[in-house]
Design a protein that fits this description.
A hairpin with a 2-residue loop joins strand 1 and strand 2. The chain has a domain of about 230 residues. It is an alpha+beta fold. A 4-stranded antiparallel β-sheet has the order 3-6-7-8. A two-stranded antiparallel ribbon has the order 1-2. It has a two-stranded antiparallel sheet with strand order 4-5. The chain contains 10 helices and 8 strands. Helix content is about 45%, strand content about 15%.
């Protein structure tokens, strides 16, 4: 048998050791199975139906694909930051909560476990690494591409860390428990105190044909006791169309760096970037700027929180009721 190799790494702050016979082959086999063009395909496919009678389904499909793409991209970036010699191990072991924490630490310039030689691992530091082997023959263009992707990842990270985006994504992917469609919000000056403004006096300050409404849990004292908040987000699916293409470019570049790191000749590796520099901004050019909340009227002062034992007692009570019914 070949000599057994091992790789030590952290997923956020959880230590792991992977034992393998050929890390180079395992890592290459793993990353070669990743096809970033999938996200371009999804973007192109569903964007065709944004004008038809099923436009809401197409819009939600693009919305889900955006969060899926962000997770895929940031998992690769964070694995590269924490375990560049063991990408396969990091990606097989990470949990969503750990990925969230690593992204947040990098965005806030807080320390993470990393083999990168930098006092603080930032998106700029990671971009420097990813584009180490990018050589277009124009140093200024190389720097522009690197800086553009670093800024892009900062903005993508902000979206990924947005708690409301996370709740919306989970509500869609776990049973499509959202109401699809956008909404509008208008304001008007009252003609007299307590008398609503007439329709013609109202002015729309935010609207979209696309978005979703969903429920969010609101903690009361602790995580066991909670109320429900109704949340609504408006968005433009064209933003996700452009974002998915940029995610595809980004993943292609991360894979390119990793392939070269694992021994693939640089002339056999592809890097990708938009033909127009303005495309980096496209996902944020159509923001509707509208978020609405309907909070529960129940506050912490209205309740006495129940303990774990209090909550579990309901099962004992029901069991006693069933026993009494059986004996009657």
């Amino acid at each position: 048998m070949s000599e057994i190799q091992y790789a030590r790494f952290a997923v956020n702050e959880t230590p792991y050791c992977l034992w393998d016979l050929d890390f180079q082959k395992s890592n290459l086999d793993f990353i070669n199975s990743i096809d970033p063009r999938y996200f371009e395909h999804i973007a192109n496919l569903h964007s065709q139906f944004l004008e038809g009678k099923e436009k809401q389904y197409a819009a939600v499909a693009l919305r889900v694909a955006y969060s899926h793409g962000l997770e895929s991209l940031f998992a690769l970036l964070c694995a590269t930051a924490q375990a560049p010699d063991c990408i396969v191990g990091w990606l097989l072991k990470y949990k969503n909560v750990e990925l969230y924490e690593v992204i947040k630490k990098i965005s806030e310039r807080r320390p993470i476990y990393s083999t990168l030689r930098a006092k603080s691992v930032t998106w700029d530091v990671i971009a420097d690494l990813i584009f180490t082997y990018l050589k277009t023959g124009d140093d200024e263009k190389d720097l522009q591409i690197r800086n553009s992707f670093a800024r892009l990842w900062v903005r993508f990270a902000s979206d990924y860390l947005n708690v409301n985006y996370g709740f919306e994504y989970n509500s869609i992917k776990h049973g499509l428990r959202v109401k699809m469609g956008g909404s509008y919000f208008s304001l008007g000056v009252e003609d007299a105190p307590g008398v609503p403004a007439t329709p013609e006096r109202m002015r729309i300050v935010g609207q979209s044909d696309f978005g979703s409404s969903f429920f969010i849990p609101d903690k009361l004292h602790d995580s066991r006791n909670f109320s429900i908040r109704h949340h609504r987000l408006n968005w433009n699916p064209q933003s996700f169309f452009y974002a998915l293409h940029l995610i595809s470019f980004s993943i292609t570049n991360v894979l390119g760096f990793l392939k070269i790191s694992y021994g693939v000749p640089a002339n056999e590796v592809q890097f990708s970037w938009p033909s127009e520099g303005s495309m980096y901004q496209e996902p944020w050019n159509r923001r509707t700027g509208m978020t609405l909340n309907w909070n529960s009227p129940i506050t912490e002062s209205d309740i006495t929180p129940l303990s774990k034992e209090d909550i579990f007692s309901v099962y004992a009570e029901r069991s006693e009721e069933e026993d009494n019914e059986d004996s009657s």
